[in-house]
Amino acid sequence: MHVPDGFFNAVVSVSAGAVAAAGVAVCLRGARRELDDRTAPMAGLVAAFVFAVQMLNFPVAAGTSGHLMGGALAAVLVGPYTAVLCVAVVLAVQGFFFADGGLTALGVNITIMGIVTAVVGWAVFRLIARFAGGSRGGLAAAAFAGALVSVPAAALVFTLLFWIGGNAPIAVADVALAMGGVHLLIGIGEGLITALTVSTVLAVRPDLVFGARGLKRSLVLRGADGATEQVPAQAPRQAAPGRPGRFVLGGIAVTALLAGIVSFYASSSPDGLERVAQDTGFGVVATDHQLVGQPLADYGEAGGIPVGVAGLIGVAVTLAVGGGLFFAVRRRAGETRESVGA
Fold this sequence. Notes:
Layout: H1 10-34, H2 39-54, E1 58-61, E2 64-66, H3 71-78, H4 80-97, H5 106-132, H6 136-165, H7 172-204, E3 218-222, E4 228-232, H8 245-260, H9 272-280, H10 307-341
Antiparallel strand pairs: 1-2, 3-4
């Protein structure tokens, strides 16, 4: 759902930019409480993984595709504040290096794809996780639901913004119906990817899943007569957490495989927003990206670079930018705690 330049008037674009800037500022402060020696390197990996998987458009209907937004996934893995930063980094790299998503619409994209998906996805996940207990299956189901709901929620916020300041005279009801319908289907794909990823990390390194912290399982006692009793239990026992270095390296290898190889097999059909824009007619107001002629534009198509090579470059840039940001935030948090303690 990368919004291009031209869809919104200047008032909405500037206002969304202000909302995005304020949201990122809040999340920079909030991320200090989420980032530690485990989540800081994990956050860099999550940002790169979201970048890679966003390249993998999957078919959802005849002539329409979808891709991961990643806000809910990032929120479950590294926390909601850090999740917004992860998606913001991805969108900035895509906008400035790959001409994907308009530069004047960067605030709109961060608001919709970053803030909305992370907040909604996290809220739904936490609500369901409290009732599902600390089991791997329960957390995966909660992650699926959070991701599923986050996508049509983002689509409806896009519709609201378009109603306020869209540059085309289209009936907002038509846009809402079309956007909500196709993005509900995309949300199913988002939910499956999110649940699979969260379940995999839980199976290997449950201590690296932020959303699993502090949850407790109920203990079921079964007597000889078959009667059962549910009693409170301590949080699930885990192996002593170690440094995430090996896991992160393995994750980077998987991410590189997705961006460098699997990206060649992504669906070439327009995504949900592009399809709705074509069908309802407001796609004509889109304008060319300011960096459309650079070699990496459209993931290498403009410069004749294979999509896999462009994907690997994108993963490296996202890792560098995201990793640098998260370690800087982590260091600042440590310095603040030391000064308070002194």
